[in-house]
Amino acid sequence: MAQTIAIPGQLLGPSSKYVAGPGTHIHEANLYSSVLGTVTIAQPEKKIAPGPAKRLTKIAGLPSSSAQLPTISVSRTGITEKREVLPEVGNVVLCRVTRIQPRQATVAILVVGDTVLEAEWQGVIRPQDVRATEKDKVKIYESFRPGDIVRAQVISLGDQASYYLATASNDLGVIMATSEAGNVMYPVSWKEYRDPETGINENRKVAKPF
Amino acid sequence: MADRRRINGPVGATTPPIFDKPAGPVATKTSDAIRKIFLKTGITPSASGSAYLELENPNPQRPGNTSLKLSCTVHGPRSLPRSAPFSPHIILTTHVKYAPFATRQRRGYLRDSSERDLGVHLETALRGAIIADRWPKSGVDIIVTVVEGDQDRDSPESQKDDEGWDMMNVLSGCITVASAAIADAGIDCVDTVAGGVAALVCEDDKTAPTIVMDPIVAEHGSILAACCVAYLPTRDEITNMWFKGRLPGADMMVYDKLMEKSLVACRCANRVIVQELNETVKKGQGIS
Predict the structure, then answer these.
(1) Region Disordered: what ranges (chain B) (predicted)?
(2) What is the DSSP letter of B129?
């Protein structure tokens, strides 16, 4: 199938027929492309067994009739292997711990979702975001060490320097760690990694293996 | 201020050797057309996006004749330096730099005021096209290098007072090439911005001044006024306008006509961008 090419500013269709996806913008009730790439139209997914309806906390419009509309987006896949993305709130990222302090762990974000980043973005994990329970007992140095690879979720754009990340979930936390002796360790519990050569346990906020 | 760390060329103007061959036929461009544009994206592999623009040289036989050659690189979006304050949108930085050999008068390595001026104009032109809040906390650097500055070396006597009319052409080229490079880098834009120039020229004292699109400065007797516009064709919006010169008093419509002609020039340039961007995508699909 020949894909349609879109260049910035190209008209894609009226906003009454499509929902704006990534790489598009709306101007005067029309959808336009905002990046160079190929157009993809995704049909809306059928909702399977919706959970208990959430109580509305803000005034929303009509229970979105737009949910039935197909999403149109412009993607740059195929043009270039290099793809620059920004960490966004809600993304799961992989990062390396660069520095630990009592009040925070500083990390370098390396991967967002499936995309390896070109640039390195700085993130911060605060003690209250390390785990969901017993937040007051969290100690950063019992959760992370410099060099660990951590799977975390972006919770805020943060301040000028760093994104705020959280590991407050079972599948988030340290996924790769090296011991003080320099050996790659394996997880033994939700809070411990063990060095296979020396047999010493070290404390970490361990991510649950899949 | 002499730069002692580098090997500098002669300070004053230099003239290339003049050969004893009669110059070829002098081709003249019609006043209602712009010169042909060569535009290519992705020429700098290390940059996030890049483009190269060259204007057709109407008289390639004449040795001293040059056209406009621009190279643009876009670096980013990348994280801001630690010292920078929080920014909810992308920080745009533009640099326009003449190569030392780009103009008749040799340029220094340091940026002078005209280059800074061009950079500011370029930034304004691009700022209106970029959707800045798609990239919070990031910065992008746009660097345009002027390899050849559209100054005819053959006719130094016809332009004794260099009034900088060629800067208009350089700016319009900068806008066009930066627009292509930004699209190549994948930065969100509302439209492809294009630059165009129109000028009010006076060939001699007897004839009435006429309006010319994309003026070749060396080919005209004198330029009275010129207008460089950055334009978003699908939105029908102008992001930057630079008007310079003096209009003959009586006719107020000349101002409007100059604007209209430069918009036509923008539309012409934009068609080149659109075609080249389409080819960029096709080329990328061919590889993958």
Answers:
(1) 1-26
(2) T
Which pTM does this prediction carry? 0.83
Contacts of B187 in chain A (CB under 8 A): 35
**In whole angstroms, what is the distance from residue A188 CA to residue A168 CA?**
19
B133 lies in some domain: yes
On whether residue B81 sits in a domain, the answer given is: yes
Interface of A with B in 104-143 (CB under 8 A): 118-122
Domain that holds residue B103: 37-155+162-278
ipTM over 0.85: no
Asked whether residue B146 carries a pLDDT value surpassing 90, the answer given is yes
Local confidence band at A1 (pLDDT 50, 70, 90 cut-offs): very low
- Asked if residue A108 lies in contact with residue A144, where contact means CB atoms within 8 angstroms, the answer is no
pLDDT at B263 over 70: yes
- Whether residue B59 lies inside any domain: the answer is yes
Q: Residue B48 is nearest to which of A25, A78, A84, comparing CB atoms?
A: A84
Chain B contacts of A7, Cβ < 8 Å?
A: 183, 192, 273-274, 277-278
The Cα-based distances of B282 to A96, A183, B210, B271, B288 in angstroms read 37, 48, 42, 17, 10
Check B278 against A160: CB less than 8 A apart.
no
In angstroms, the separation between the Cα of residue B214 and the nearest Cα of chain A is 25
> Average model confidence (pLDDT) for chain B?
86
User: Do the domain assignments include residue B142?
Assistant: yes
Total domains in chain B come to: 1
**In CATH, what number is assigned to the domain containing residue B151?**
3.30.230.70
